[in-house]
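Bench notes, afternoon.
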Amino acid sequence: MSSIGTYFYNIFHSLYTVVVGMRITIKHLFTRSATVQYPTVKMKIPERARNRLFVNIDDCIGCDQCAMACPVDCITIETIKSTPDMDLGMTSKNTKKRLYLPRFDIDIAKCCYCGLCVWPCPTECIVMTDVYEFAEYDRKDLIYSFSNMTEEEIAAAKVRLEQYNQEQAAKKAAAVPAKEPAPPAANPLPPSVPDIGKA
């Protein structure tokens, strides 16, 4: 092959290589762009997407099932037992509420979005939402508290439970009869007789 032929062959080969390498790019030059103008326009989230957790505290019965299922221990629940004279109401699933919830915190910074906490909930009060924009400058701001009890309500519930426990303990103590002294033995041993010979 002459030098001129080699020259034009190299030009053709280089152009062909560029076209093959840019095939997908060239293809998309003639198609309509699918750019989303975020954040004014947002893409639709799939129905079963796993993002930030939400708790409907009015439906929570404090069973602690979600916290036990969590593999990273990001859910913290504290409960106070209610007294029989208090009516805490019913959940939307017609389950009677028997526990106060002074604390229900989720540290979303620890959450791995596995969804294992959602399925064991008997009242379906904890769910995965489609909220994915919750960046914070401080990690403490990623701890979400869902309890709606005030400090005064928590203190009153504790005092009420303590009084109830004391009343129950007093009733139980009063119901137990006092122990009677044991009767004397049927055949008591005679008193020891001194040895006269040694006197």
